Amino acid sequence: MLVSASEMLTKAKAGKYAVGQFNINNLEWTKAILLTAQELNSPVILGVSEGAAKYMCGFNTIVGMVNGMLETLNITVPVALHLDHGSYDGAYAAMNAGFSSVMFDGSHYAIDENIAKTTQIIKDASAKGISVEAEVGAIGGEEDGVVGSGEVADPKECKQIADLGVTMLAAGIGNIHGKYPANWAGLNFEVLAKIQEETGTMPLVLHGGTGIPAEMIQKAISLGVSKINVNTECQLSFAEATRKYIEDGKDLQGKGFDPRKLLAPGVEAIKATVKEKMELFGSVGKA
Ligand SMILES: [Zn+2]
């Protein structure tokens, strides 16, 4: 059964580790992530962007697929199904379809409107036991076509949004979605420490987990980050393994063209990436 992200993140914050949010794109992705979480006895959050939801034929299809897998694969670790960077309407559509967690990304609104919309969503989500992530200060890079410039959040605004009763808070601290440029300045730990000071026990979320050096990840966790989003890194691993399979001519040998064979190396590559991240985040054995 799907659970909200609330309990797993409260435990993570208290235990000084982070739970990974791994974004899904299709059946192979979902199965690879769920099997790895179960194998490592780790809680996990499946992230779905609105673009990916559209690609996978809508929220209902995804909820059906994930619930089916939890049962068929005997997944007993805590799993949250979470809308990533949701719009206001998207958050409601995901909640109605059976998502157990939603992010409402109101970071592009003025703070007052972000607060008003976040407040309404929290009210309706908490009535259904659904966790809510809010965002303050746009995160750089590309979010489904929306490009930000690597902003740093205002700790006071973080406190304002945290006090509304969100479950978890995403705050820009110099992190970027996608691949990091060579001249990236790194995470702003000074701001992160201030945000943590203002928001206390609130689990903080680090977006754009791909390519942040391990020691920066660990320092961020020590400063209150309890959820880390990984998307691009699984895509890169999958693409690399699939390319190698084809370049080696394996699709031309025997029944190597069978999608179950063709996609298998990519699935194994996703599993390896997820395992590496869960070990780095410290969530192994914490289910
Ligand atoms: Zn993000």
Commentary on this structure:
This protein has helices at residues 6-15, 27-40, 50-55, 59-72, 88-97, 111-127, 155-162, 189-199, 214-222, 232-247, 259-262, 264-281; strands spanning 19-23, 44-49, 79-86, 101-104, 131-136, 141-143, 146-148, 168-171, 204-206, 225-230. The protein has 287 residues and is an alpha/beta fold. The chain has one domain: TIM Barrel (Alpha-Beta Barrel). Strand 4, helix 6 and strand 5 form a beta-alpha-beta unit. It is globular. Zinc ion (ZN) binds at residues 85, 139, 143, 177, 207, 229.
Q: How many β-strand stretches?
A: 10
Radius of gyration: 18 Å
**What is the number of helical segments per DSSP (H or I, 4+ residues)?**
12
- Unreliable stretches (pLDDT < 50, length at least 5) are 145-149
How many separate domains make up the residues? 1
